[in-house]
User: Fold these one by one.
Assistant:
Number 1:
Amino acid sequence: MVVIRRATSPAEVMAAAHLFDGPVRPEWAQRFLNEPTHHLLIAALDGVPVGMVTGMELTHPDKGTELFLYELAVDPAHRRRGVGRELVEALGRLARERGCHGMWVAVDPDNLPARAAYAAAGIAEEGPATMMTRELRDPAARESGGEADTGDPHPEGDRPTAGADGDPAPDRRPTG
């Protein structure tokens, strides 16, 4: 039986590091966990992490608070068993408990496994969207491989993500 719990320590995040796109840094994990509006749920089977989902509450003056589902990943050996759906549903319950009026995720149109997992969890598609980005690091820092003081875990500006099926997508920005 899969057990889903909210991560509360960098050690828990490090134990699930194989589910993330890149190396997990304990200091970034701690920074994420310190934010009361950031949520990281880990699904474990017999104590071993097999899936994770992250989300962040966003509040806007004219929209109230909604939850942005940032990333979902399931270990390849545990896919197609409902783990992704269970994680998304658990995150939705947490968002509702915290007073969020909705939850959203951006998904690449060709990421069919992610779209299927989100649909199974009750998330409706609204149509295509375009993501635009801007590099914020100083050009010298980019050249030297250094990073800005933003705590960005992907200092090169490349934010790979795994779809709902957990397959890495190194050429994509966060899309859930």
Number 2:
Amino acid sequence: MSATNDRPPLSAMPFRAPTARLALRPVSRPSPGHVELDGAWWPRSRDLTQELPPLTEVLDPLWGRITRIAVNPRYWPILPRRIFVNGHGVKVGWFTSELDPHKILLLSGTAGPWDLLVIPPATTDSSAARLMAAASAGTGPRSTASALMAAEQPDGTASSYEAWAAPAGRLTAGM
């Protein structure tokens, strides 16, 4: 008697490091009615079409399938209506007055909402490290995205994307 196997032979897949620069709060689910941040995201550019897929690829396995993303359009020159990630579509919407301009909101069919501080792409390494640590801290006082951004500015005013120095690479997850 002989055994047959119709499966193709196993092949080696190269390891692919996460491409999203991300720091998350050490909590499995947000608290009901929360207004705090669940972490921070440091995109490499202002192009949401390029930046959202790597972010969603990382978060899908952690938070459940991301189905919708909302941003404030103040700092994003192009807003896609939909992106495709891991074989499914994700709707992208925008809100001007309801959503902090320094935050992104992600919704999952199984959990969420999830709020992330958006660190401007041109932020220096040291500023990004402080902002990521503050937004993802599991202890201490919670703060809004704009309050964290204002605290990072020497004059105490909220930042704009144009006011930041050249980008670099300190991050918690992915490079």
Number 3:
Amino acid sequence: MTKKNIVSKLPYTKPFLFVDEIIDIDEEHIKAHYTFLEDEFFYKGHFKDNPVTPGVILTECMAQIGMACLGIYLLKDSWDDENWQVAMTNSQVDFYKPVFPGEKVIVTANKIYFRFNKLKCDVVMHNANDTIVAKGTVAGMAFKK
């Protein structure tokens, strides 16, 4: 399964797809990035005249990379887009820096466990200056429709 193929299998599309490219992936970790475009839908109302990326969107970005992409990779050939779905079951994220329109973030996730189609990961989000923006854990599961 190629890196581009994994992103294409995600059950998201614009404007709710927060993965641009997978940089590195194996059985234990994933590293990918996303650039928050200046015209993202949520900037119109999140802090009038000073748009900031909402924490829930940063969490979603970390979950799409750290839980959904890595989960699809770990399921390998058993994943088929027509019969499988993913759902986040738990998250605990601390935020350290704001992310503004136009900023690129890099997310790294390390697998804590993967069993019974449930994946839990430690996740860290850095900005382009390699400063930690957010970190925590995300967990989710894959299930058949």
